[in-house]
Each structure stands twice: as C-alpha cells, then as structure tokens.
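Repro case for the chain-ordering regression, as requested:
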Amino acid sequence: MVPITYYLGLAIILFILGILGVILRRNAIVTFMSLELMFNSANLVFIAFSRYYQSLDGQMFVFFVLAVAAAEVAVGLALMVAIFRSKHSIDVDQMSNLKG
Amino acid sequence: MSGATLFFIAMAVVIIGTAVGMLVSRNTIYSALLLILNFSAVAVLYLQLGAPFIALAQISVYAGAIMILFLFVIMLLGVEQLSSKENLHWQRPIAILFGIILMGVAAYLLIVKGGNPQPLPAPGANFANPTDIGTSLFTHYLLPFEVTSLILLVAVIGAIVLTKTEKRKSELDHSQAASNVETFDREKEA
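-- result from build under test --
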C-alpha cells in the first residue's frame, strides 16, 4: 500500500493552500471555504494515523470535527448575511470599522 | 509502482488541482463547485484509508450540507464576483513565497528525515464498521457526543438570532415610546 508520509505530504499541501486562501482572498465566503479546506487537511491526518495505529480514535475525532465544522459554518454564514445587510458588501477590506 | 500508489497519486492530483482552482477562480460559484469536487475526492481517499463510515459522512455532511449552505448564501447575497481593485499588491508574492518556504520545510522533514517509510498495515476485515463506531460513541466518547448535540443546538439558535430582522422591534419601541410620552403628558396635565 501507500506509506503514511504521502498522506501527510498531501495534508500539508492542502493546509498551506488553505492558509494562502484565507490570507489572499478578499471575498469573505472564499475565506470561509479555505477554512474548510484546512479542516479537511487535519481530518486527513487524523484518519491516516488512525489507520497507521489500527485504532478507531482518529475516526471518532474526525466525526466530532465534522459536526463542529458544520455548526461553525452555519453561524459564520449567518454572520456574513447580517454583515451584508448593513454594509451591502462582503469584501473583507471594507470591514474596517474597528480600525484605530 | 503499485496500483494503490497510482490510485493515490490520481486522487492527489484531483484534490490539489481543485484546491488551487478554488483559490484562483474569480467566480465564487465556481470556487464552491470545485470545493465540492475536492471534498468528494478526499472522501474517496478516506475509503482507501479504511474509513468507510467517515467517507460517507464526509460526502453527506461536507459536500452535501455545508457546501449547499455556501451556495445558498452566495446566491442569496448575489456576490458571485467582487470588483477587482486590490489595495495590498505586495501581499500576494510574499504570501506565496512563504507558502513555498513552508512547503520546502515540510518536504525536507518528510523526505529526508522521514526515514524508510513502510507501507501502511492492512486493517482487519471489520476495522471501522458502524457497529464499532456506534459502540465507541456511546461508551468512550459519550461526553463529546452530548456536548456536540449542545453545540449544534446553540448553532441553530445563533443562526436564527443573527439573521432576524429588527424592524418589528424598532416599531415596538416607537409605539412604546409614543405611549410613554402620552402617559407622561397626561400625568402632567392631571
């Protein structure tokens, strides 16, 4: 089969792409989607190690990460809708009301 | 190169390609659709890693519910494309440079210091069947399970409260303030 370092390398590449997406994109919804990409890479590492150690704990963690990510996306998108109602834009460069 | 390695490389190419496409695309709906493809390919990789329950949970929760929620919000707000005037031009090359440095460090750790990686051990026939996962959820992981249900309830309440329109409340305040002024005037006259 495939050694575990292949899966870890893929997860690291996905994580770095997620970070670049959060930093570089101005559209707040694409920022959220890059956050989901980072969650995915962490899940991949969990499941790879669950297979490596032949233990079920990694998959249980992924189960909980999935549920909490779903809750976080719901609240985050509700926040986006509320912000859009007042500013009529979801450009993160324009959300600078708290700037000193 | 065994068949498993070829399959992994094919899936990895799809995953990285769709991730890069999601980052680069100017249209938000294309980004969301590419991310759905990304999640499905990662679910297939979970199948190869011997996690069938989590693979199908990933497809039904991530690709099926979360991304549909994203698409709903994108189409509700009508923000398919932002106007492209970028203020901080110097950020992009520096971020990409740091990303490449981080990837280089990770590649060094994985390849040079990784030692001689053995192929992953094959799991038993009944490695991660739903019976074991259910038993583990209700015995070892009972507390996180109950707390997760609480988290989901709080998320539903939060989402409803955040998007509630304030108009009726302000009308109520106006009518309340008007009636207060009326009673005050009447008391003054009396």
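Ordering looks correct now. Chain B touches chain A through 82 residues (CB under 8 Å).
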